[in-house]
Amino acid sequence: MAEPKTILIAEDSSVIxxxxxxxxxxxxxxxxxxxxxxxxLKKVQxxxxxxxxxxxxxxxxxxxxxxxxxxxxxxxxxxxxxxIAVTGNANNYTLEQxxxxxxxxxxxxxxxxxxxxxxxxxYVR
Length: 125
What we know:
Layout: E1 6-10, H1 14-26, E2 30-34, H2 37-46, E3 51-55, H3 63-71, H4 76-79, E4 83-87, H5 95-101, E5 105-108, H6 113-123
Parallel strand pairs: 1-2, 1-3, 3-4, 4-5
């Protein structure tokens, strides 16, 4: 059987993180987590990540800054990682800003878990 795909969840709320992790593990994904933008950038350097669920309001570096840094990476294995933005404040951003930052998809909070699974499957094959 193929190795499970690795999803990085960038989320500072342990409740949302734990729920999301459980849902994805039930779908046979391997889940790693980061509580802030600094951890996100370190984890994409240290291991193969197949997709990132990026909360936009994380400490140290927010999700938009992290996304831009990942997209600017010279290693295509890092710069091409699908990034799915997760936020309760989508109204603070336009779709244009998401595109410019390099965000592939967007999920509003509170998370719809069926939509979450569907979106992750779409970007992680």
